[in-house]
Design goal:
Blueprint (H helix, E strand, L loop, with lengths): L1 E2 L14 E2 L8 H12 L2 H11 L8
Antiparallel strand pairs: 1-2
Length: about 60
């Protein structure tokens, strides 16, 4: 699952696609179902983005 920029400005030369999840499996239906489950959960995506960016989450 890759997050795309949503901006009218052109990407900077060093911008890279952010891969938030990679899922492998023998059954394509299971893989697609798992990716779809993540894709429709904004909080799950946000957690993965933060994890990929190395952010530290605080429990307040």
């Amino acid at each position: 699952m890759v997050i795309e920029r949503r901006s009218f400005a052109p990407p900077a030369p060093n911008d890279e696609e952010l891969i938030v999840e990679e899922v492998e499996g023998a059954d394509a239906n299971v893989v697609v179902a798992e990716l779809f489950r993540i894709a429709r959960d904004n909080a799950a995506i946000a957690r993965r983005v933060l994890r990929k960016q190395g952010a530290t989450l605080r429990a307040d």
